[in-house]
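Appendix B.2, paired examples.
Example (i):
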Amino acid sequence: MFMKRLGMVVLTVILTICCFSGSAFAAAKTTEAIKGTPKIDGTIDAIWKNAKTVETKVWVSDEGPWATGKFSTMWDENYFYVLAQVSDKLLSDKSANAWEKDSAEVYLDELNEKIATGMDGNDGQYRADIKNANSGNGQYGVTELKTAVKEVKGGYVVEFAIAWKDLKGKAKAGTIVGFDCQVNDDATGTGIRDGIVCWNDNAADKYQNPSTFGNCKLVDAVVAAAKTTATSAVLPTTGSEIPTPVIFAAGLCLLAAGMLLVTRKIKNAQNN
């Protein structure tokens, strides 16, 4: 009986460690935003040439032949800028729901606090659909967002200018903000969203969970062009992340406690 109980404790600890270390504690991805001030007109200016670009490859929905996007980032003292280039075979804004229309989204956590319990005053979700209708969540508002959309062959382009709030007058090279981006696709034109794909994380509650955002470091344009080495060692991680050694140490402590508890119960039973 003792060995059976001990075996169950050991198995439970091992499964717990494997599950959490392999999924819930994945590190946030990192990108950079170069300094510059693009025109928000739906046209890809030459100033975007040196901007760093990320791709949406992490599926929230089932993976399919849905729309995907490439997102480039830039900043100045007044705004955080994003250029979205979306590949989409069939454009649709048929749905009455803003989030189900063909659209691009940007998530921003200015102070990079990665709070998991909801958006606070410096977090926002910013969406623009193919008709340039805006919507969002958190600190999103008509005074915080400027967008321009242009249909192109094979998809559409969206430019975002998100006004700094907490970082207004404080944004500088070296600042790290929380960031993610998303593409929504009504692939069949029926008013139902088929595809949802992001850059950093596939959490379905991203609109109210900044802990799922990645990291974007504000850099000077020259620095971005000359040096793109990883800086993940000094970057904030997701709010839920715990280093793997800590996970295993906690698991070993749990295993030891379980073994001690079972041993005491067996001894008590024998004494009685």
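Example (ii):
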Amino acid sequence: MSAAAPRSMPQIGRSVLLLRASLIAGALYDVVFAVIMLTAPELPARLLQLPLPGPSFYLHLIAVLLTMLAAVYLMAAYDPIAYRGIVRVAIVGRFAGGVVLGLAAYRGQPALAGLWVVAIADFAFAFTHALFFAPLRRRLPAI
């Protein structure tokens, strides 16, 4: 073991804890949105000044998918090293979500401008996950 190894171990432990925290925060964000979509969809629509979709079926389906996503995030938070593939998907998925929502807000109708808030949140999660995953990624074998 090299002299640098003992100093890097606390960095790995801290990165794991911070990554876990960011994944749990992402899961909570998704679950809260899912619950609000089911119980009070007019609240985010009013706060973000977004139109509600026609049939409520679409919000219910999105709520189910967000809840499933949150469960997967919690699996990755439990052991980010073992579930590093999920962490990678979370980083790319949040970034892609930010791009899609940002483009919809930019190109869409003025009624979709509230999507900027959600796009920025997705970019923030992507950046945070990537930032805390980077020290781990450099020390892990590729999968």
